[in-house]
Amino acid sequence: MQVGRFGAFLLGVSADDPLSHAAFARHARIRFPLLSDTQPKGALSRLYSVYREREELSARAIFVIDREGGIRFSEAYPDALNPGVNDILTTLEELADLEDTADQEEDIRESRTS
Fold first, then answer.
1. CA 57 to CA 17: how far, in whole Å?
2. Model's pTM, two decimal places?
């Protein structure tokens, strides 16, 4: 997925250990970093309310977080579903448009004071 053009990056997170992540990344040909949410297990997932205590695992979820740390998009998915990228790209495009508009407004303000 070409998220770099939006100044964004991908990071996978799960409560699996690093060795499991390495094997999964090789098998699935994943080319983005995977973070092991361990020590304590599921701490990050709990912060985002996607840790399933009874099963001791993280739900499959996607979050788009803006530069200020705000969540702009979030969705949890059933385990069997491989979420698509359309929602992510739409959110990133909207964020890029907002930043462009803010930059243009700043340029106008600066030109008026010059």
1. 11
2. 0.63
